[in-house]
Task: inverse folding
């Protein structure tokens, strides 16, 4: 894959040889769709921590952070035919050696594995580990393992104030809880709550 796509059709900033950009076709049961996203997050976190000395965290719903900066985005698109789920397309964009300082729009919010670790890493070095982790977590999920608790423990933004793009509006509040189906409950400043099934 030579170009990445982010949520809402955004372009994933990358240069040749700077990032892992991959898409995988999966065939999960409809009841597992929410946990596929969680499995991918755990796989990326595991890959980062096994390949470097860095600690990684998850930002709900689909980003991986190192020291508060985005190093990876996860995107899942479900493919339906005749109202039936046919497949899930899982996309992962992981910055390995991207020089984020060259891109003003992301220089303060994004990072890379090499930039954070000081290691001279390349995408071909990381891909086998990432695929192994994805295979391990996906097989565990298919075998009936509930990965929700493990995933939730890695969500850095739980209990913190967040701003979430929800449709055409922006919701602000404390991320009070995240359910096993991936939906999040935000506690607004006026005391009211709103449940969001996906965000940005």
Result:
């Amino acid at each position: 894959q030579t170009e990445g796509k982010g949520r809402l059709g955004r372009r994933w900033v990358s240069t040749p040889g700077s990032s892992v950009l991959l898409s995988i076709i999966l065939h999960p049961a409809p009841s597992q769709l929410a946990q596929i996203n969680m499995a991918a997050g755990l796989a990326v976190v595991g890959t980062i921590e096994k390949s470097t000395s860095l600690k990684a965290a998850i930002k709900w719903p689909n980003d991986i952070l190192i020291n508060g900066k985005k190093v990876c985005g996860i995107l899942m698109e479900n493919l339906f035919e005749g109202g039936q789920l046919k497949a899930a397309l899982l996309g992962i964009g992981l910055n390995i050696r991207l020089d984020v300082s060259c891109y003003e729009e992301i220089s303060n919010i994004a990072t890379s594995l090499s930039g954070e670790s000081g290691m001279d890493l390349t995408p071909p070095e990381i891909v086998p580990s990432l695929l192994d982790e994805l295979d391990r977590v996906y097989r565990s999920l298919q075998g009936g393992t509930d990965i929700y608790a493990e995933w939730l423990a890695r969500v850095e933004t739980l209990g913190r104030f967040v701003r979430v793009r929800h449709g055409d509006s922006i919701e602000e509040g404390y991320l009070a809880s995240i359910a096993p189906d991936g939906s999040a409950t935000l506690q607004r400043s006026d005391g009211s709550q709103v449940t969001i099934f996906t965000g940005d």
Q: What stands out?
A: The longest strand covers residues 69-81. The chain has two domains: 4-152, 161-196. The longest helix spans residues 123-142. Residues 1-9 have pLDDT under 50 and may be disordered.
